[in-house]
Write a structure and sequence with these properties.
By secondary structure, the protein is α+β, with helices and mostly antiparallel strands. Helix content is 34%, strand content 17%. The strands form two sheets. The chain has a four-stranded antiparallel beta sheet with strand order 1-2-6-5, with no helix packed on it. The protein has a two-stranded antiparallel sheet with strand order 3-4.
Length: 212
């Protein structure tokens, strides 16, 4: 993979970046048979922008440029992302089991390799350590509150239990969001919309041309 050589003016046409070659990232038409992929793909093939969102084919390789800083990337972060339509969450009112079944059936999934610079890799590591420390600290506070309530029978110590429990949830949810780097906005069987990508990274890409 060769850096990030293209500018918006020199980027390959969005409708067909491979000219007459077979294009695995063309418009989302389901062929009757699987066409062979070309041996060499342009560095930005299968990548587009839609406003502040990166649109990519699930098989498209990302260039060696950090998606968070637009600087040269030194590492790759393997991310398994998943998404389902927000309306599916409403099915929880019909029962948790109903929601679990629908989510398992209708959730879209993809695995991507995110390019990160060394500073952003280190920043993610610090966030992960902080989240673990905060979560373990809140868990310890929750255990302490539980023990004090049992030993002293004083209800005031239940506050420690409550604070520890809430803090643990916040640390878990916030920690996951902090280390995720990007998050899916939408997903189909073939394409993935990602939020959290640096604007300068997006500005190198052609506009998303399809109405799906």
């Amino acid at each position: 993979m060769s850096g990030y050589p293209y500018s918006p003016q020199s980027a390959p046409p969005a409708a067909n970046p491979f000219a007459d070659e077979p294009n695995p990232y063309a418009a989302p038409v389901k062929p009757a048979y699987m066409q062979p992929y070309p041996q060499q793909l342009p560095p930005l093939a299968g990548l587009w922008r839609q406003g502040k969102v990166l649109v990519m084919h699930k098989l498209a390789p990302l260039p060696d440029v950090c998606v968070k800083s637009n600087e040269p990337a030194a590492r790759r972060l393997k991310r398994k992302v998943q998404w389902h339509h927000p309306a599916i969450t409403l099915s929880i009112f019909a029962g948790v089991l109903v929601y679990i079944i629908l989510a398992a059936i209708l959730t879209k999934r993809a695995t991507i390799l995110l390019p990160l610079s060394e500073p952003w890799h280190a920043r993610r590591k610090r966030r992960l350590i902080f989240a673990w420390c905060a979560g373990l600290g809140c868990l310890g506070l929750m255990i302490l509150g539980f023990v004090l309530v049992i030993e002293t029978n004083e209800g005031i110590y239940a506050l420690l239990l409550l604070v520890g429990f809430v803090g643990s949830l916040i640390a878990l949810i916030g920690g996951q969001a902090a280390v995720a780097m990007v998050s899916p906005k939408r997903m189909t069987d073939d394409y993935l919309w990602l939020k959290g990508v640096h604007p300068d990274f997006l500005n190198r890409l052609p506009e998303w041309p399809y109405q799906i």
